[in-house]
Amino acid sequence: MTADRPLLEVNDLKKHFPIHGGLLGGVTAKVYAVDGVSFDIRRGETLSLVGESGCGKSTVGKAILRLFKLTDGEVRLDGERIDNMPAGKLRMMRKRIQVVFQDPFSSLNPRMKVRDILAEPLINFGMPHRAAEIGALMDKVRLPRDAINRFPHEFSGGQRQRIGIARALAPGADLIICDEAVSALDVSVKAQIINLLADLQDELGLALLFISHDLATVEHLTHRVAVMYLGKIVELTDRRTLFARSHHPYTRALLSAVPVPDPLAKRNRIILKGDVPSPINPPSGCRFHTRCPFVFDRCKIEEPLLRSVGVGHMSACHLDEIPGGQVVPGTA
Amino acid sequence: MSATFSAAPDLPGILPVPKERGRIGGFIYRHPAIAIGGALVLLMILIAIFAPYLGTRDPTSLAPAKRTREPPMPLDWLNYWLGLDGRPRNADYWFGSDMLGRDVYSRVLYGSRVSLMVGFSVAFCASIVGTTIGLCAGFIRGLDAVVMRVMDGLMSIPPILLAIALMALTRASVQNVIVAISIAEFPRVCRLVRGVVLSLREQPYVEAAIASGTRVPVIIWKHILPNTLAPLMVQATFICASAMITEATLSFIGAGTPPIIPSWGNIMAEGRALWQVKPYIVFFPAIFLSITVLSVNLLGDGLRDALDPRLAKRL
After folding, report:
1. Over pLDDT 70: what percentage of chain A?
2. What does the pLDDT read at residue B6?
3. Which among A68, A120, B14, B99 has most CB atoms closer than 10 A?
């Protein structure tokens, strides 16, 4: 194993959900939720996965967590494949990848005390779970230690999200998947939780996969961003490049939709026409061609590949191949 | 015009002042159905337990000379207590005697033992079996379709017919009645539990438990089962009431509890031939059965209202 090997490598990940129907319950169609996604995450790095709802970003997170079997592709943790791991080994691997969910109300069992919620992963992995260890977890997420004997309903949304983060920290994970972890929170609480995550990342060297639909949130804590559209990554780059020189028309449309806190600011909104096509029957060629303002013939036939367009900058658009075809941001 | 403000006038009683109620008083006020139903069920349980000490005689001893004694009327008792009249006729037979001279009062009180035992045992057995199968069906995808089609099949047969058929296969005894009615009732529990499991297993806290390496049996025990208890309890009370009726029906048509054991169904079955001339033999067990079933149903309704968070929030 080389020292610079990424913590997590995802290669051509696919997840198709069958739709059962008919008299005998046979498979009548498939939802192409995730259709060939590749990326990697290094230790201590934050990768954000952004896109509209229904683009498959949460499915990617759940696939890495192995909450279901993959249709195709491979996922490696420290070079070891985890997508086809046998159940016994998988259970111990789960120690290293943890999750924080969006809804702080349904992600904690209402009938368990905080102490038991935090002890559960510790018990599962045979780690000590005395009051001292659980108190230390409460310290890490800046909650009072004496709150461990309370039930989740006695906490506010932000506090519950901290409990969810403490649970994810409990087994000493290397990678935490934050599935819309701050989307359900108020702006002020959101900022606190983002700061907490950033502090924890510095303290513990955590890698974060931050799944979000909100680019403004992502901007504050991410190192790199992957933009997803209909089950595919359309652009993958570091934060600065994304916000300054993004290539893909979809990324630029997303960026133009981020609210700017200045009512007088001149904005060049790119308004996309229509809705996201159904992932049951995705469009041919480039999946974005039905809504792309720069669409041309080739887009409807040939699917663009994710190609390198700069240092650490990947984009999947036919325009990238045309010299000067890139529309400069701001003129769109 | 005066510059001073007068004191605020007493507000008319737009907002009712909450009345001071004690803990028990407050509970009765908030959940009258549970209080009334629970009290009546408790009363029936006490009657069944203390039947030998409530002025009863041996419910099976025959007295051919004292057949079909009619019970005294309430007016007779009133006149007696007011001193207007002597002790009423047949004062020893509060509910009268049947065609074999057995005391109906004693038989009805002892009969409550069979009814309550069958009701509670069926509720318990059907809940245990139904919950176990429902949990498995809800959690194991491959099992779900097969098990639920079998349950649909069982549910398509009316419970009473299924119980009759099962009783026809075995010897008449209270245990067999319990087994037969439990088999007829448990698919409902199974369907209920499976539905709850299907909705709970998609909850983020269950997914988080899977992601933190919790084994499936522990997930079922710690995360799923506690959250199925509320609907299960409600369903169990309804099964209890329905089982008591089924037991009485089976006994009435002679396919249930053996005739030697007094049960409400048996007493009614035996009084059936005489019901036009001696209606009290049927009347007393019937009124006890009705009150018991009503109170169990009332308790179930109250529990459902109290435990269902959507209904409990109402003012």
Report:
1. 95
2. 57
3. A120
Residue B312 has pLDDT above 80, yes or no: no
Compute CA distances B99 → A210, B271, B278, whole Å. 83, 8, 9
Per-residue confidence (pLDDT) for residue A45, from 0 to 100: 92
B223 CB within 8 Å of a chain A CB: yes
Q: Which of A121, A173, A166, A119 is nearest to A139 (CA)?
A: A166
Judging contacts by C-beta atoms under 8 Å, the chain B residues touching residue A137 are none
H helix count then E strand count, chain B: 13, 0
Q: Using beta carbons and an 8 Å cutoff, which residues of A are at the interface with B? A: 25, 62, 65, 67, 91-92, 94-95, 97-99, 101-103, 106-112, 120-121, 124-125, 164, 167, 170-171
Confidence of residue B307 (pLDDT cuts 50, 70, 90): confident
CB A208 within 8 A of CB A196: no
Residue B191, min C-alpha distance to chain A (Å): 20
CATH match for A8-222 among 3.40.50.300, 1.10.630.10, 3.30.420.40, 3.30.565.10 = 3.40.50.300
* Model pTM above 0.90: no
Chain A residues with CB-CB distance to B145 below 8 A: 25
Tally Cβ neighbours within 10 Å of residue A268: 10
ipTM of the complex: 0.85
Residue A140 in contact with residue A166, Cβ under 8 Å? yes
Domain ranges of chain A: 8-222, 238-332
Residues of A in contact with B222 (CB under 8 A): 109, 112, 120
- Contact: B213, A91; criterion CB under 8 Å: yes
For B277, other C-beta atoms within 10 Å of its C-beta total 9
